[in-house]
Structures are given as structure tokens and as C-alpha cells.
From TrEMBL:
Biased composition (Basic and acidic residues): 103-115
Organism listed in the record: Salix udensis
InterPro entries from the UniProt entry: Glyco_trans_1, HAD_sf, SPP-like_dom, SPS, SPS_C, SPS_pln, Sucrose_synth_GT-B1
Family: Belongs to the glycosyltransferase 1 family.
Catalysed conversion reaction: beta-D-fructose 6-phosphate + UDP-alpha-D-glucose = sucrose 6(F)-phosphate + UDP + H(+)
Quaternary organization: Homodimer or homotetramer.
Glycosyl transferase family domain sequence ranges: 471-644
Protein name as catalogued: Sucrose-phosphate synthase
Amino acid sequence: MAGNDWINSYLEAILDVGPGLDEKKSSLLLRERGRFSPTRYFVEEVVSGFDETDLHRAWVRAQATRSPQERNTRLENMCWRIWNLARQKKQLEGELAQRNAKRRLERERGRREAVADMSEDLSEGEKGDAVGDSSAHGDSIRSRLSRINSADAMEAWANQQKGKKLYIVLISLHGLIRGENMELGRDSDTGGQVKYVVELARALGSMPGVYRVDLFTRQVSAPDVDWSYGEPTEMLTLRDSEDFLEEMGESSGAYIVRIPFGPKDKYIPKELLWPHIPEFVDGALSHIIQMSKSLGEQIGGGKPVWPVAIHGHYADAGDSAALLSGALNVPMLFTGHSLGRDKLEQLLKQGRLSRDEINSTYKIMRRIEAEELSLDSSEIVITSTRQEIEQQWRLYDGFDPILERKLRARIKRNVSCYGRFMPRMAIIPPGMEFHHIIPQDGDVDGEIEGNEDHPTPDPPIWAEIMRFFTNPRKPMILALARPDPKKNITTLVKAFGECRPLRELANLTLIMGNRDGIDEMSSTNASVLLSVLKLIDKYDLYGQVAYPKHHKQSDVPDIYRLAAKTKGVFINPAFIEPFGLTLIEAAAHGLPIVATKNGGPVDIHRVLDNGLLVDPHDQQSIADALLKLVAEKHLWAKCRQNGLKNIHLFSWPEHCKTYLSRIASCKPRHPQWQKNDDGSDTSDTDSPGDSLRDIQDLSLNLKFSLDGEKTGGSGNDNSLDSEGTATDKKSKIENDVLAWSKGVVKDTRKAVDQNSSSVKFPSLRRRKQIFVIAVDFDTITSLAEATRKIFEAVEKERTEGSIGFILSTSLAISEIRFFLSSGGFSPSDFDAFICNSGSDLYYSTPNPEDGPFVVDFYYHSHIEYRWGGEGLRKTLVRWASSVTDKKADNKEGIITAAERLSTDYCYAFTVKMPGSVPAVKELQKVLRIQALRCHAIYCQNGTRLNVIPVCASRSQALRYLYVRWGVELANMVVFAGECGDTDYEGLLGGLHKSVILKGVCSSASNQLHANRSYPLTDVMPSESPNIVRAPEESSGIRNSLEQLGCLKG
């Protein structure tokens, strides 16, 4: 009930009617407390987070009741409700304490195990310094590039960037985004983030060295929104780019690219976008590939120009960026803007909604999982303030500030981290445009200096404010905030009212949003405003406080100018301020600041040094700071000068320069088959020289597999311990896949003739459509039976060769060999095999002499990012043992390592008692706490556990085939059951079509998906035209394919 001061009035009324209460009938609460003060009780016991608006309505009804007896009864009932609130508050506090204690114990246990695995005592260097703008991969605040401090420095930096042609992708999915006339505040999804991402794209597009910036968002063609949101592409007008016109090209600049996904004619809130994320990813992937090829023709010498980074904004875009980054093998950046765990904690504290109700309303658990996945996949996480790192990101399993410092110290010493990774936390405050701001000089009665000959009329808002003041010449203390209890405006008014020297020296201006009538405001805002008005009356501040009812957004700069003209001060007294953009705006206009010491203002003050920080709860501290700045003119002038001198550090050029330097520190990654170290062209060629050069060591990249055993590749050796070996291996892999892409296939000892059939694989490149069998049976016999029925449904097209097949499964390649032989299938019946839940990719070979399978080792290089290797394997084995130990009555292992089924990129475990193992979310939590990045998947109805790289999955393997071989996702049809392995949700949605076989794998739902972090229904696309249900019969399957338009009737 923060700020609901009206509560005091009716609580005091309870005291007033005390004698009217029959002592024998009075409540137990009143009798037990003796001299009971409801006001004091409420203030001391009831949590400020409650906003009991219904309590206020009850009080209004009680006031209107004429019967004293009925009125007394209502007031007593209200007192009971307050008491119940206090009980609820204590219960919530207890639950919060339990959650924090549990999280702390899990963190400490994970940290101990991680340090034990790294098997070294901590040195002084590993203790690290304060959490902040630091990296688990090397750099800190001290080592980052120096800030721009002059136009000459900017020019020097710009000259260094010349010659670079960077392509950057930004993603912001929800809300309505356009370059001009943004409808900020139209709804909760169209707010500050929309303005930020558009300005960021515009500013990056204006930077030297940046050729193109694409801002991806959702295309909305709904009747209730403007037509401009349905335009596929919008070019953003760049500012201050005249100096770099020579770098402009055909496709250069910054663009808003709108990808159609979700309901075609409906604008939906962000909470309902989750089922449609795969569709966006597929559409964005198609655009990036086409744009990369186009840029390659313009500036890349014929080679594709891949994005240097993909930057997701907010959880939904972070989830999308993680999938795109993995599909393209390029670095990912993430900005949370608002974090789900922090919001969940706040909502639970309020106590108005249960956890289930919160998740149903906000889809909060899906959002939190997306943020955890963003931590798993990101190279850099960009924050605005240190507070965001220390108080918000540390709530996540995937980020531990203490372990991050240990990993950073080890990397600085060039010591192995045993497969553990942490994203870099980079503090980069939002940028602002300052070129149009002219700091105000002169007195209130005089004109601006330098304009005596051509005086300009005062802005209308000046008169609107100054009409409140008896003496408008006095310095103005300016506060600009909505009437929200968190903004702490009432404390500011009290501080001003009770400090006579301050009242004599200054006026107070409160810009509290726009209002027509108090009765039309929300109850919370109305209560704050009424409290302010009562305080003005209490301290007789008439003629000294201004509180205009209306102002336009365009008036805000003029309000800052007026305050500066009167030699005033800007104040932000909020209890907690996440960033504090108004402080930067005020400094740009020459205003010293007084700001809360909680949150972002601390970072702003450290840079600008243009004011004082105060405790927002200390009324006297606020008054003293304001009086000090107003009374001491030399201090006021110094703070003003410091702010104007340092304000460029928050400009968009500075923001982008720091941003680009962060990107430059990332290890470059891109689809590696495009790379050729000797500089030769990577396009198809018939050159004999190329063929002879490239067939060397092809077995390292496309190795024919005869028995399904481990094929080598990247092994379990930690890459940090064998950098030289890894480099040699990578070079060989790059050359080998390059050879294969040119149509060269060889035996381990001899080259194959260019005219042989082997040069034509993978044959899926020739297919008009690809059918993906991804039905998750727990027996090979059932899988074989379903496969035969699918084959029978399309026997004609299969014989013609227009349809190819891919088997996508959790099985290992050795089990697939058994599946083929026992089911009467030939390896050539399938074009590809996605094995081990998406961690291995094999192709069939048409020539029996070459062996049945060939493994795509370039796929391994594509997914190996942040793969934990041996360190991960040891942790998993220890975890499996701990699960067994907890079941003291079980002598045999509940879960044991399946060495025969494991590969270099998939650690397999056999689960003997599926009902006794922890849910997959618990295992994922254990691994994230230890900074191990991977996917854990329960398969085959819970009898197997596969742990694979974070960039790998069965759905990502399909996207790899599109990126690698050009197999269109829209031409794929995925066959799945009604449920399946715990990666089942990734199989549905996207541009491909899906056929769900009725009654198949329905039992897996209860076994594997009962303890999910979020309900499966939150992410399953409903009423999608690309998804149909079919009976498990060949005729029914064919009818469903005809319904999807895949086959002709």
C-alpha cells in the first residue's frame, strides 16, 4: 500500500469510533492488543507492496453508511482484513527467505564442485575484484578502450574503422516498431525499449565501419494498427553520417525488417508470442542468408558477408537470437531490459497472485527459461547499470558473480576452465541525442546570452509553470516523475516543506504526468497526488510549488531549460532507480543533480560528477543536499560545468563506439565451410587442381562409418589444454568440408572419380520435399512400423525420387544400423540421419563401396561452441552417482553412463528407474550453476538421458541443412507423435509443416513433461495451418499431406 496515505484517515476513524464499539463484541484483535493503534499497526506491519484498492472501496462504502452500527461493523471487518494482510506478508517473507536460502546453498555447492573439478587452490588473483563490467574471457573496466573525450579522438577512432564493412542484426519482437512517430505508451509492449532499439539501429548505421544494420521485428497487418507496421522493410533515416557517405552502398544503412509470424491479421501481446518464435527464427534465417549473399556480391568479393553479431533485446528476442546464433554459428549479444526473475519476485511479494496465476498471466517461467538460454548462448550481456548485474542477473542459475571472477582469473593466467563458460557483463548506458540541445544561460528576466538582437518568445510551458510562483526568480528545484509511490515524491515535498532556508531560497516544480481529473486517475496515482496536495496545504507552500496538469513530450526540454535559466537543480528521489535517463537529460541542459543512491544514478554520477547522491529514505539528507547546491553558487557552477563537460560520454556515438569495441573482442565465428585459408574461391569448380588439393584428409570431415563407433572429431579433450591440436584439427576440417562441397568424395586411401555417383550426395539437395521422421517411440520395432506406414503413404513420390527422408531421433548411429536391418530398410532409403538428439549428422551414400554412412564433421564444428567436454562428463557422472546415493534402498545404479552409446558430442546415460530421477529442469539447473552450457534431454519415454551442446538440437539440425545445403525449411514436413522426448516442443512450429500422428507417444506426456519449468501448452502453436493431425494409417497420413498441400489428390 505504498503511498496510499488515505489509509491513515480511515484507520484514524477506527480510533474515533472506538467508544461506539461494544467491548464485548469487539474483535479479538482489538481486545488482545489493548491500546491498539490501527494506524501504527498498519504502518509497522503491512507490507508496502500491497495495493489493496478494494480496501479503499470498502472504506468509501463505510463512510457512506448512515447506520452507526453497520458503519462500525464494516470498519471492524476492515481491520481484520488488514490483520490478514499482515499475516500474508509474513508468510510471503518466510517463503522468500526459504527460496533465497535454497538458492544460496545450491550456488555454494555448485561453486565448490566447479572449483574441485578445476583442481587448483584459489590464488589471490582468482579472488577477483568487484562485480562489474568484466569478463570471464579476459577484459575488465580498466582494460577496455578509453572513452571518446574530444572530436579529434572520435575522428581518430573513425579513421581506424575505415575499411570495415560490418553487418549487425538486432532483434526486438514485441510492440509496434517504426522509425518515425513512434506510438510510445500505446500499450505495455510499446514503450521505452521500442525507442531504444530504433535509436540504436539508427546510431549504429551512422557509425564508420558499419555497412548495414537490420532491426528484426514482427510484421503486423491488423486492422486495429497503422498500415506502416505491415510494411516488410523500412529504411531508417541516419543522422550525422555525412562524413561517411563514401562508404555507402546499394544495401547499406539501417533498416527495420518485419518478419511475418504468428496470427497474420492480429496484434497480440508479448505473452502470446512464445509458440510462434520458431516461425520467426526460420523467417529471419532466410532473410539473413539472402542478405549475406547480396552483401557478399556488393562488398565481400563474392563471398557471403555474415553478421558480425546477433543482438537480442528482451527475453523473447533473446530466445530467438540464441537459435539464430546457433544456426549460423555467429556471436550473440543480449540485453534483458526487464528481467523475469526480478518481476516474479516482486509479484510474489505483493501476494495478490499465486505462482501459477502469475505464470498463467505473464508466461513468466517461459520467459525465465529464455533468459537462462540467452545466458548459455551469449558472448556478451549488455546492461545499463552495475545494479542490474549485482541484484538482478545474480538471481539466475546461469550467472554467478563469484564463479565468474574465478573463471576470469584462470583465463588471464591461461589456465583451463574445464569446459566452463560465463558471458561477459558489459555496462553500456543507453545513448542520447545531444546535438540539438543548447545549454541555457542568462537570468529569468533576461534573454538567452547572445540573442539580444533577436529575442525569441518564451515557450508556453514556462508561463504555465511560473503562474504558480509568487517569486518566479528563485532557483527551481525540478522533479519529473509520474505520481507513483516508488518515485518518493511525498518525501521530497516533506523535505522542502520542513526546511525553511530551502523554502526561502528556491521554488519546487513537480511534473507528475498528465491528468484531467483526480477521480479519473488510477487509485495509486490519485493517492500520491492527494498526499502531495495535502502536504502543500499542511506546510502552506502555495506560491512556492508548481504542479501543472498538462504538458507535452516536446515541452520537456523547455522545462529543463527553465530550471537551468533560474540556476536550479534537478532531483530524482526514487527509492530505487534502475537507470535514470532523466538525470542525463537534465545534465545535458546544464542542471546539477540530486539523486537516489540506489541503482543506476550511482553509475551516472560516477561518470558525470555533477551533483550529490542521497538516501531516499532520509528526508533531512534530501533537504541538505538541495540547500547545499542552491546556496553555494560555486558548487552549483562546478557541477554544471562537470555535467556539460562529460555528458558526451552518454551520447549515441560513444555508446556505439563502446558497443563496437565489445563486438570486436568476440572471437569471430561464422559458417566455416565458406572459409578457405589459401584464399581460393569456395564456389563449385571443376578444376583438377582444386580436386587434388582438397581430397587430402577428407576422412576428417566426411568420414565413412561402417560400424557406428566414435569417429574422432573433437573428442572429450578440453580445447583450452590443446590449443595447437585444436587449431590443426580445425584447419583440416575446414579444408575437408570445402573439398566435399566441391563434389569431391574419397575413400580413406583413394579418390573417387568425379563422374561417380558419390559426387551427387547429399541427395537431399535434389529433392522437392523432405519428410522428417521424428516420432519418439521407446522401441525400435514401433519406430520401424510407423516408418513403413509413412513410406507406404507416399510410395509413388518416393519411387520417383521427388521426396527424400530424414530420420531424426535420439538413437545412436549403431542403433540406427540395427533399426535399418531389423526393419528391412536400406541406408539409401534415407538421405540423412540426425542422431543422438541432434548432436550428430550422417548422410547415406549411394555407392556401397563407400560404406553406408558418412558423418558431417562440419556440423560438429558448427555446434561445438561452449561444449564442456571432459569437465562436463565428470560432472554428469558425479550427478548420476548422487542420484543413486539418495536412494539408499537401491543397490544398482538408477542412472548409469552408457559409454557405448556416447559420442564426442553426446554423453548418453541409461535410466533404469525413470520415475526416480530428477526432472530435466533440475539437472539443467545443476549444470548452469556450475557454468556448464548444454542441453539435457530425456529420451525414449524417460529410459535414456542425452546431454548435447547448447547449439545442438534436432530442430537446429534442420536449420543447419538449410544453411549448409539450401534445403528450404518450407519444403520440409516433420512427422511427430502427440508427445515425445523433452525436446519435443522444438519439432513443431516454424516454416516447416508438421503431421502429428494420433495416439502415438501420448504416454510420454505424463512421464517426461509433468515437471517442466513451464507448461507445454505455453509454447505449442494452436490453430496453425501448418500443423495437422493424422491417424497412424497410410491412407490417413496421405490425406493429411494432401490437406497441407504437400501432395496432389
